[in-house]
Amino acid sequence: MNYTLNQLKIFLKIARVESITKAAEELHLTQPAVSIQLRNFQEQFDIPLTEVVGRKLYITDFGREIADVAEQILEGVSALDYKTHAHKGQLTGRLRLSVVSTGKYVMPYFLSDFIRMNPGVELSMDVTNRAQVIQSLEMNEVDFSLVSVLPDSLSLEHIRLLQNKLYLVTNAERKFAKKPYDNSIFEELPLIYREQGSATRQAMERFIQEHHLPVRKKMELTSNEAVKQAIIAGLGASVMPLIGIRSELTSGQLQIVPVKQFPIITHWHLVWLKGKRFSTAAQQYLDYLKAEKEEIIHRKFDWFEKF
Questions:
Q1: Full set of structural domains in the chain with CATH
Q2: pLDDT tens digits, one per residue of 149-173
């Protein structure tokens, strides 16, 4: 046997989600890279680990046994790392977060210095849709979650991190006046919507209803990246968070249309279950964030705050 820890990690993820595509997304790898590692791992066994039936991937009984062993091995490796760091007097443990998709432009900046200062802390961050984020909170699977609209269904505590500014955005084909337009501009620009449950969509629809905007819904897409590409291609306009379009604004692929009463303002909140008993690593992170968040905003988001 000549398998690697990376192969064990990838196969364990595939076994949990029963999908190469989903495993690739959660591991932030390309699908071909995951497929290659699965094939290389399989070549070391004479018995199939997976099978495909009707284009769906299933884990065999033998594969599940291997996945159980892989989990034990990876937990043992983590334990070795924790003990090494603990022996040096360093903070150890696992910090678990779930983050809504647009939050990937925010959360890493509030984590990077803490993780660098505490190499014994293992970070697990799931970037997913809002419904999955709320579910992970409800099931107590994470320490913290990042959301831009606080859910009403759970009893939570939170700390406000950063403003979330939503603007009307189009591609660069049409030239717009610098003077803010009134609401009639929405009659000219068909809108691309995010999927149901998206916090961006909720904020946009609330604003539309409150101001009786004459909108034309063009299509519905399931990610911020998909909306960006559709706008760049000329398929319509959308209301988008500034935090996710900095590079496209800089390159001239997208432009903000000045509209009265914009931007729509919400806030990014780090949330956790009320009464949650934190691990030492989670408590230390929360204390760090409360002490350092203003400095982080000043250093990392100066461009955003001035926009």
A1: 5-86 (1.10.10.10), 89-161+267-306 (3.40.190.10), 163-266 (3.40.190.10)
A2: 888 888 999 999 999 999 999 999 9
